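As a warm-up, study this chain.
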Amino acid sequence: VQLVESGGGLVQPGGSLRLSCGASGFTFSSSIMSWYRQAPGKERELVASISTTGSSTNYADSLKGRFTISRDNAKNTVYLQMNSLKPEDTAVYYCYSPLTARWGQGTQVTVSS
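Now compare it with the structure written out below.
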């Protein structure tokens, strides 16, 4: 089982990034998928989750309207589109599969001018 995140980087406040998480080693279409993030000195927190078909999503209340989770089961990939980024969004972002209880290695997102 492998989850590999990509797409992080340095972005200015108000900017956008799209994170990707490629999955392998399990039946991706059978797993709810989630994005979490962990800022320095803080606990890891749930950002968003998406159902197996993509028909249902949920978000942390503070992020609704700015972040969008989606998935492409044909590509075994889950995405996180992040808009209107703020310095407080700076964190390492991880994808997670509850089906396998596996985490990706994380991708750093830094929002700074």
